[in-house]
Amino acid sequence: MAETWWDRSGPFWPLHTLNELRLVYIRDHLCKHFRRDTNSELPLDGLTVVDIGCGGGILAEAMAMLGAEVTGIDIVEKNINIASLHAR
Q1: CB count, 10 Å around CB of 72?
Q2: Does residue 3 surpass a pLDDT of 90?
Q3: For helices 58-65 and 13-33, what crossing angle results, to 10°?
Q4: Which of 6, 27, 36, 50 sits a CA distance of 20 to 30 A from 77?
Q5: What is the DSSP string of 18-74?
Q6: The pTM is what?
Q7: First-to-last CA distance in the chain?
Q8: 48-86: per-residue pLDDT in tens?
Q9: In sequence order, what are the residues at sequence separation of 6 or more whose Cβ sits closer than 8 angstroms to the Cβ of residue 68?
């Protein structure tokens, strides 16, 4: 199923929907902790994040787009390959 990670209408559609909520939650809490502006263009710039169990990289890629340096770790090699291809 790794090939369907990034299909928003595929079997992982609930994860894409949930990701929007969890990204805001994580961003807001990191910004509060590190005293950053949540409204800045790259509020996570300079932070290093590890996404354990990253799957196809949905959350990892979203956090990277907010400026974080993200390392995604997953037990399934095919998921890492999909995440890497999508990130490119």
Answers
A1: 24
A2: no
A3: 40
A4: 27
A5: HHHHHHHHHHHHHHHHTT--TTSSSTTTT-EEEEET-TTTHHHHHHHHTT-EEEEE-
A6: 0.88
A7: 20
A8: 999 999 999 999 999 999 999 999 999 999 989 888 988
A9: 44, 45, 47, 48, 49
